[in-house]
Amino acid sequence: MAKSIDVTDLDIYYGDFKAVEDVNVTIPAKQVTAFIGPSGCGKSTFLRALNRMHEVIPGAYVDGKVLVDGQDLYAVEVDPVAVRRQVGMVFQRPNPFPTMSIYENVIAGMRLNNKKMKKSEADDVVESALRAADLWGEVNERLARPGSGLSGGQQQRLCIARAIAVQPQVLLMDEPCSALDPISTSAIEDLIHELKANYTIVIVTHNMQQAARVSDDTAFFNLVGTGKPGRLIEFGETRKIFSNPDEKATEDYISGRFG
Amino acid sequence: MTPPTQTLKQRPGADGPRGSGPLNTQDQALHTRTLPRFAPLGLLAAATAVSVGISLALGWNRAAMVVVAAILYLVAINLVSRSVENGRRATDRTVTGLVTIAFLIALLPLTTLLYTVLSNGLGALSGEFFSASMRNIIGEGGGIYHAIWGTLIVTGLATLMSVPIGVFTAIYLVEYGKGALARWITFLVDVMTGIPSIVAGLFAYALFVLFLGPGVRSGFGGAVALSVLMVPVVVRATEEMLKLVPNELREASYALGVPRWRTIVKVVLRTASAGIATGVTLAVARVIGETAPLLVIAGSTDSVNFNPFDGRMATLPVFTFYAYSEPGVPAEFSVERAWGAALVLILIVLVLNLIARLISRAYSPKTGR
Amino acid sequence: MADSSNELTRPVKRLGDRIFSGTALGAGVLILVTLAGVGLFLTIEGLPGFTADSSATQPADNFVGLAGPLVFGTVLSATLALMLAVPLAVGVALFISHYAPRRLSQGLGYLVDLLAAVPSVVYGLWGIIFLAPKLVPIYRWLENNVGWIPFFSGPTLASGRNMATVAVVLAVMILPIITAICREIFLQTPTLHEEAALALGATRWEMIRMAVFPYGRSGIVSAAMLGLGRALGETLAVTLVLSPAILYSFNFIGAQNPSTIASNIALQFPEASGLEVSVLIATGLVLFLITFVVNFAARAVVNRRSEFSGAN
Fold first, then answer.
1. Is the pLDDT reported for residue A253 higher than 60?
2. In total, how many domains does chain C have?
3. d(C-alpha A218, C-alpha A35), whole Å
4. pTM of the predicted model, to two decimals?
5. Reported ipTM
């Protein structure tokens, strides 16, 4: 079910401001790809462009092509809502729906779309999504409790379960561990390892070690200058990027961080 | 007693000077003479005693006694502080007294009003008072059955009309509206909160006259008039609540492939529902006591009328007004009914306010993170 | 789920979204239409009233003769109420925001808000039964001792039903709205400003004068104007308390008091017919325009303030 993503000549705008410029990249299927780079370099913006979450912000639009399995997400007749069902997303801060129980949170993707489901069917979806998110053992006794009652790390795994319950082909993660403690972070990283068997995963991170630990490929974004759009500087296997990058900027950034 | 010291920095809300801090224990320059902590209370007691004495001697009533005591206290604290401390402190202490007195004065109407209504109205309450209308009643007996139904029907209809309009307008303003139109709506909703209630009644009358001819009266007209007053309140309250829903929840929903309108209905509105319920309850409490518009368009009758589209409909506030202002020949029974109806009305309003606070208290912590 | 290449393809703008956003927009526009409708329908029904002859404008000879004293009475009562309410409201708001213990201030705020919830007809009853008799001794004293001032020339009615009592009742009724807004604004005073003043050695009152009042001045002005708008339109309390007449008078404690527009409508409307109704609606239109201008001005002040302060 996982698909690769082909991006060609992508420019991203907020109104008149060009935030990201001229990205060309192929993100391989069933791999973990990490986006790294300094703050404001456009990596999160680019991530949000991959499931058209970008255009939720008024005045934001893109120019270029993003192909998932040969289908251009930005073609005229494509429905952004349908795109997001196939390209799921996990956010920086865990955001379970506060009015819903753990159970309801997991099947929120179906319930909110009024998809009719049998009880047994819904139970199965909840269990398999929670198992896939390594959360089943911790919450199966209290599925009816509010999702906001869990710890931060559990909440984030709940959000991952919620995202994979709609069975997307791609999972985008926007700094999913930045609000979590080291133990929760480690649990999420383990989870990412398991998930890549079934999903194409793209993760934005500020944490170099995390990028090195979890990803197969790494893309380095950087600003050309202040006020200028961000650009994709280098893309390649994580091992190569971290040990022997082609670009001077990449090496500076990585070595600066590793000191 | 701790040695009197002056603290350099005093937090707002803290009353009177603090004890010695680390700064001012040794430094002589920071030592100024300060009134002891009990000084204001002592002066207040003295002022009260003097005032009571004068009042007893001259035969003044209690109100004059309190006023004199307050004035004596203000003068005394000013003079004492001026002589012991300095002019600036004296002014500060006087203002503190003034502000406290202002608050106590503000409490007077509420307490005397509740007392007056309770003492005059309690005697009117009886089984008959709640179960009988005023049909064929002259003098003693009768009740507010018809007026209670009228108030429920008119307010209920007004709520049914105002809540959808108000909530959808708030949704437009928060979720969709960006341009000049949204700014104008926001501004005019504010202005609309200031429409005098009697003008709302005249508007409903003028509107219905166009279709139904002169002299029209109906409960539905009253509901339209109340809606004009209620919609802006609902819009404001809902708008505030929708703005409190974190954007992350909207994004989480979009990211699950949920269309915008479903996100608004099932995530945003649901998260804000307790707050909206609070706002609507307060809005109902506000219009349920409105008299003027109903006087104009709903009119008054002695009988039960369940049909809001046909004819006059009695309501509690209008009943109260007429029972007092046109009591008929043995006036005391009607006036007593007026107080009874006023008491019922005020109880309804207080209960609605209480419900609103309970709703918001029970649900408010959940929306936060 | 995986066989999805054509599942992406749907109408770009969903029907549900279109209906929903359309409904929301419609509700917003309906509010604009309603506000315009209030002006429009009052004009349509009230227009004949402006030119009505003495048969419909009793006791005056023409519309201006009737509406003039009513506007006078309306503005006078509201202004007096405002003069009483604003200083008190500022004091109460200060007490709640800066003097009362933090834990109590929210509850005290509720208490003042409760004043706003009391129906106006109940205020009217309270004003006429409880308050007015209590004020009569003061009126008597004023009449006997400073009666040479035109405001207090009397003669005082034993019932106390005069302009001064109306002003007090109206002041009580607008107190909560002015207090609520002032309280909000005082609480928003930047802590940095307050601490800067305190660090200069200011007393609490000096801090309030240096930091809180300058920050909240326009807020107090607009709160007062909103209170004024409320007082201008208040009906039942005035109807019940005032002993009304159609005349110009600055005698606050006399037997003959200028009535107000709203109170006059409430008294006359139930019995009015034909052209009399038009006259009353025309006076209502005048009231609407007055309150509209006052509220418009108040909101404009508030909005300009929020732009400057960067709030919202």
1. yes
2. 1
3. 6
4. 0.85
5. 0.89
